[in-house]
Amino acid sequence: MPTIAPLDLDGHCVAAVFLADIPHFALADGTVHRLDHGHKTVQANDGLLCAALDLTGTKLITGGEDGKVFATGADGTATVVAEAGRKWITSVAAGPQGALAYATGRSAWVKLPDGKLKEFSHPRSVEGIAFAPKGMRIGVARYNGATLHFPATEGKPTELEWAGAHTGITFSPDGNFLVTTMQENALHGWKLADGKHMRMSGYPSKVKSLSWAARGKWLASSGAPAAIVWPFQAKDGPMGKAPLELGTRGNTMVTTVACHPSEDIAAIGYEDGMVLAVRFADAKEVLLRRPGKGAITALMWDKAERRLVFGSEAGDCGVIDISA
C-alpha cells in the first residue's frame, strides 16, 4: 500500500505541484505552502484564481483577484512578474524561454522572453489560455470557439469557430490538435492541419480537468463517474472511436485527472477525496488514497515517477509515495 504524508490546510487547494522536486500547494487565499524540511508558507496573490507550472518545473505561475501574476520559486520566493491594475487575472499559462500569458476580461496578454508585453483583444471574455508545444503561439478559449495568435509577429489570428462557451484550452503535445472544455457537458477539438472538428460529448457534468498521456496518444478527462480517456493515436484523433472509461465508481464523480509522465496510467481523483491509479491497457486499479474530506482539485506526479501530490477543495493535501 502506498504511504501518505498528509498536510491538512484550511481552504480550497487550486494547485498541487512539485517545484524542483519539492511539494507545493497553492490555496485560494493566495498562500503557497511547501514541504521542505518542514512546513513553510509564502504569501503570493491576494485571492488566487489560477495557476500553471513553468516549463522548467522550478516556478509556479499564479494569477488572482489582486490583478497580479506571481512566480513562486522552490526557495519560497514569490515575485510579481506582471500586473493588470484592478482587473482579475482569470487564466495563466507558461511558455518557452520564460514567456507567460494571462487573461483579464476580454484581453489575452503575452509577456515575451525579452520582457515586451502584447495585448490581444477579443469581442467576449477570454476564458482559457495555453501555449502551443512548439514555437511562440497561444490558443485562447472564448465564446463560440478558439483563437490562435503568434505573439512575436503581427500576423492575422486563426479563428476556430464552434457555437457555445469554451472555458478551457489545451494543445496536444505534438501540436496537431487543439481541445477546449465547454460550458456544456462536452469537449470540442480541432485538427489544426485542416480545421476538422472533433466532438466529444455525453458527459454528465462539466469537464474541469484534462491531462495528456505520455507522447500524447490519449487525453484523460474528468466530468463523469469514470475517467473518460479519448484516443489520439489516429490522424483524425478520436473521431469514430469510443473512449476508455477507467476507474468507474457508481455515481461518484471524477474531479481531477493526472496522467503518468511515461506510462499509460492515470491518477484519478474523485469528489469524495479518493485517489486511484488505473492502467489503460487492462483497467487495473491501485488504491492510492481512501476517501477524505473534500473533492480532489489538484494532482501531479514527480519526475522520478514515485510520488504524487494532491490537494482538495477542503484543504486536504499531501504526498503519496507509491514506491513504499
TrEMBL record:
The keyword tRNA processing does not apply. Keywords: Repeat, WD repeat. It comes from the Bacteria. Signal peptide: none annotated. The lineage of its organism: Bacteria, Pseudomonadati, Pseudomonadota, Alphaproteobacteria, Hyphomicrobiales. PANTHER family: F-BOX AND WD REPEAT DOMAIN CONTAINING 7, WD40 REPEAT PROTEIN. InterPro entries: Quinoprotein_ADH-like_sf, WD40/YVTN_repeat-like_dom_sf. This is Anaphase-promoting complex subunit 4 WD40 domain-containing protein.
